[in-house]
Amino acid sequence: MSESVPGTNYINAVSGIKSWLTTLDHKRIGIMYLLFIAISFGLGGFFALALRLELLNPGQLIVSAKQYNQLFTLHGAVMVFLFIVPSIPASLGNFLLPIQLGAKDVAFPRLNLASLYLYVFGAAFCVYSMVSGAADTGWTFYTPYSSTTDTSVISMTLGAFILGFSSIFTGINFIVTVHKMRAPGMSWFKLPLFTWSLYATAIIQVLATPVLGITLLLLVVERLVGIGIFDPALGGDPVLFQHFFWFYSHPAVYIMILPAMGVMSELVTTFSKKNIFGYKMVAFSSIAIAVISFLVWGHHLYVSGQSDYADMIFSFLTYLVAIPSAVKVFNWIATLYNGEIELKAPFLYFIAFLFLFTIGGFTGIMLASLSLDVHLHDTYFVVAHFHYVMMGGTVMAFLGGIHYWWPKMFGKMYSEKAAVVAWFFIMAGFNMVFFTQFILGTKGMPRRYYSYLDQFQPLHAFSTVGTWVLTVGFLIMAFYLVESLLNGEPAGDNPWGSLGLEWTTQSPPITENFADTPHIIHGPYDYDKVKLS
Amino acid sequence: MQNKTITESLIASNGWMPKAASTFAPNIDGLFNFILYGSILLFVGILIVTALFIIKYRKRPGYSPPSGPHITHNTFLELAWTVPPLILTIFIFYWGFTGFLDMAVAPKNSLDISVTGKKWMWQFEYKNGTKTLGEIVVPVNTPVSLIMSSEDVIHSFYVPNFRIKRDVIPNRYTKQWFEATRTGTFQIFCTEYCGDGHSQMLGVIRVVSADDYEKWLANAGSADDGLPPEKLGEKLYTSKGCVACHSVDGTNKIGPTWKGLFGKTRAYAGGSTVADENYIKESIENPTAKVVTGYQPVMPSFKGLLNDKEIAGVIAYIKTLK
């Protein structure tokens, strides 16, 4: 172990581009992931702005029908594969998981770096697809449309295939790290709930992602060699693709939301200075969600002509998976009871998640219902629902996590006032964009429509204006976060007074995370037993 | 831009859902309202409790939280927020499931109509051989069963007022039945993404009285007899779905506009020609023979879907669009 000179940390321990490109430090890898993920979010957001602008009026405004179809495909593919799947686990997870365990690094640092390189390599394929006749299949690549369109589907699917391996590498690494690298005294039930959620996520990543890889590869084989698998013109079955695709992509929804739930548990305890209500329930509900999530994929296929008995079973199991999610929400609220609540920026995002995710959950109850889903399926109602869950849930928790751990990652504090202003813009804009879409969907507006009936115009226009409000919020955030890196006040080691292990080391941490191996005596949320001076 | 709204408005209704027009709708709307109002109730409850906690327990001068061990477990509370929601969701599941079964099996005496989806039109065929494009006429208060298949990619047949939707899949038949409860003209959408013309893949269902239906079916195909050719062409422009891809006001859609088309020189890969009667007839019956530069060869053949008189009508109509 190198001597920790005061003022030395993982950022300035070694310098130069090469030291970053060849680093094995999980914190540096996490920060690089954070950068790429932020760029991807910007890119996906740009596509969203463009397609919403096109939808301001029926008929052509800025792009043709084909370009519009490419825009929503790229928006979906970039947001799902490049942004939201890796978002919390690869950036915050990479940075924090070993520190929360009291470890020096993840179990396989080289594999960790390889996952980052695979991510960039996969992203390069996606970018290549964008500039060489971007795919127009939707991010779901449904056959036989995807096996017959003349756009560059192969490079996009290969990109997603490679990104899948990046995700698997991260998952394997996290599972082994949690099992083998815990500091002395860190028993399973002293694990921070963020780590629990990453562990549950990693299980899904490792088990489900290969199925996506195989499916996309089969699609590529069909297009290149002409072997009939999904295309009925070649003797294949197009609905088989939907089963394969959702067998991955439904569990993937939980890859996206579970880490967000982990962040929520950290936020609520730190900012109410309370022990979490029902630690084991929250931890086990993550695992329960991970397991049941494998058995609900068929709820995407209620109107596809699959057997009515399959529909019945999938609907029933979907309701079962709703329960652990609801239990978590109730646990978080109960945690606030008798607390000492500080309304800081990260906690505002806790509130945003609670508000928006609950709406996403209730509308999920509607969609899971067999007869009602027949009307709502493939309308804007579905679009609104998954944006409330993915953006209202995962993105809000991600932003909360970034604001919470920002001082730990960079040692600098951002402007709290600017953060509050940005939060208001984001909340207002988000609800303008997407609540409107619940109304549109219920009225029958189908999704993925380039043009629409004139009667839908006012609602579409209102939704589009919402995207501009949302953009203002994100621009303010980008500004004050960059500003804090340049001129921010030093944050100190533990600005929030948290009991989490990551707050006991310096900010930013040294390369080895801790000067000495930490010995764990109390749990991460024992605010009733431990008093920080 | 979009074809003129001849269907009943989907927006104008008192509740969230479009005005109901099928026997399925009351049950589905009841379920929707049950979940909606139940959710609002619970949601407001959650918000009130959260807001109260945040106000009551916020950090402020003079406030210190109760000392002593934190409450981290309460069996009664945990059962209370797990078991009732579970029972409630099973009830909702059951409601949705039974409603779904009603929609799954068509009554034996239903009127069969076959539906073919293709990029980007809906084609219907009645048992007596009557074919229609983009428009389907059905009698009110009579079960109608649609036997559906696709000629290319997956489409989905959706009628919001009826609360019905079913994917239309190549190389396979899917079925959907309904019974309309009132007369009117209702919107059909395609709801499975199918390419450039997806949002133009529209249609209408005209629900008429049993007498009007019999009359319509008896006269279908001959009702246009009295029309002058250009009027017939104008009618076919909408009823046969040309409107989805060709404008008559000069704007470019998926296909070239018809405005000023007649007599113009058309360039295509490997040559050029003047758009005369023969060129237009060929473009209708064999559209990929001469695809105008800058457009995709995506138009389906209308051979057999339009008779000679109708083709002459379309040509006459195009001639009027100067």
Q: Helical residue percent of chain A? A: 55-70%
Q: Find the CATH topology of chain A.
A: Cytochrome C Oxidase, Chain A
The helix/strand class of chain B is alpha+beta
Helix content of chain B: 25-40%
Radius of gyration of chain A: 23 Å
CATH domain topology of the largest domain in chain B: Immunoglobulin-like
Detail the topology: elements first, then pairings.
The complex is a heterodimer of chains A (533) and B (322).
Chain A: H1 17-21, H2 26-54, H3 65-84, H4 87-101, H5 109-131, H6 145-148, H7 153-180, H8 193-225, H9 238-272, H10 279-292, H11 308-336, H12 345-368, H13 370-376, H14 380-410, E1 412-413, H15 416-442, H16 457-487, E2 489-490
Antiparallel strand pairs in A: 1-2
Helix pairs in contact in A: 2-3, 2-4, 2-5, 2-16, 3-5, 4-7, 4-8, 4-14, 5-7, 7-8, 8-9, 8-10, 9-10, 9-11, 9-12, 9-14, 10-11, 11-12, 12-14, 12-15, 14-15, 15-16
Chain B: H1 25-56, H2 75-80, H3 83-104, E1 111-118, E2 121-126, E3 131-133, E4 135-139, E5 143-150, E6 155-159, E7 164-168, E8 174-179, E9 184-190, E10 203-208, H4 210-219, H5 229-239, E11 265-268, E12 271-274, H6 277-285, H7 308-320
Parallel strand pairs in B: 1-5, 4-10
Antiparallel strand pairs in B: 1-2, 2-3, 5-8, 6-7, 6-9, 9-10, 11-12
